[in-house]
UniProtKB/TrEMBL annotation:
Keywords: Receptor, Signal. Residues 1-15 form the signal peptide. The keyword Metal-binding does not apply. Residues 41-127 form the Leukemia inhibitory factor receptor D2 domain. It comes from Ictalurus punctatus (Channel catfish). Residues 143-212 form the Leukemia inhibitory factor receptor-like Ig-like domain. It comes from the Eukaryota. Pfam families: LIF-R_Ig-like, LIFR_D2, LIFR_D4. This is Leukemia inhibitory factor receptor.
Amino acid sequence: MFALWSVNLLFLVSAETTNTLDLMSGSSESAPLRVEVCVKSSWSLQVRWTEHQNNTNSAQTYQVQIGQSEHLNIVAQTNVSKEAGVRFVSWVWTSALPLQCADHSIRIRRVPGSGDRTDSGSWTDWTTHYGQQNVSSNRSRLFPTQEVLREGSSVFFCCIPPDGARVTALRFSNTPYPLINISHRVRAIRVLGLNVTKIGVNLICRDDSGNKRAVLNYVTFPPEKPKNLSCETRNLKNIVCSWTPGREPNLSSVRRRRYTLHILNSDGVMFPCDKRSSSCEFPVLPDLIFYNISVVVKNSLGEERESYAFNITHRVFPVLEDMVVIPAALDAEVYWTLDGNFTGLQLTCQITMEPKNTTTELQCIGEECMRNLSVCVQQLQPSSQYSTRGRCAVQHNSWSSWSTTHTFSTEPLVTLDVWRRMEEENHRSGRIRVLWRTVRSQFSCLSHSYNTLHYSTSVVLQWS
């Protein structure tokens, strides 16, 4: 029989204090009372037992044995200790073989502790958790099935054939493996070093009646602790916390890792996070300025968490919205809005103009910041193209990110640069030409002309 490993966890529950008695006296109290076994998972059994009330004041050591199949082959043996004052003891054993593949029985006895010269106590009766190998079925049953398995682990898979049939082959991920005899009916394989996949991996069992059965399992890795956790708000209405998630998950749907955000200093208020992103948004809580949060990530293999504390007024980064530019020839009015509740806060906003390479600032306080804001950018050139963008900061905090760039053109500039030209056609008639200039930029101008009238000797005009 192959060796099975175990992982032992000890949970102790305090009990009422009683008088101390000799537990190794060989009396009727030499074995614990009431041993119970319950299933925690496809691989884990929780074993619970109750000590005699008269013996709770003494620290004790117990020996636990796990027997497999109807032959009670010992596959695990370990010692479990309890502290003085404890009456109820709980211990978890994890099997390498899925529990459905065979019966697993547990018995317990007291053993001497360090420096104790007394004899070991008597064993309890075997308490059995029954597998499914003796359950009648007309088709094969494979275990585990639809389970999430750990990347890199080595896993036993078993097949229980239909009544009267015999297992002839087991394949994992379309690869055949040598069969291991678990009992007269059950066969198993052991797969070393599981690899992650985007989809499930198949487990296929064939029997001598020609039937084939396939099931899926999934391989992934435990979640990683969120890194670079930080939080900010644009409007003091909603807070967004973001982080670096680490390794990209390979599973989706219900098997995907899940994030939750907990506000630790507000009765543990919890918000679920978007499982498709590495951020979480939640509303600002009334009258709460200082936040102590924790982001928890879980999947079937475990959980990790990261904490972060901040003052919300130090994490405000307003964003300019609805920017509108009304240009003239030599200047432009830039309008924008800020969506948020900035009561009691002082804001500074910057508007830049390119290619002029200038920055214009505007300051506002509280409600002033919640209406349309504007600045006038001057000393522009007519008939020229510019681009502008803006950003804001609260009370000397860091600047927010720049808004989207807005491009515009200034209007043309028409000056009062008008003159006339007298053009004589002959000694009896002539023409007057009126000319003016439109300024297009600082360095160029365009001349226009218009023939205003003709004259003849019958019309008296004054030349000057």
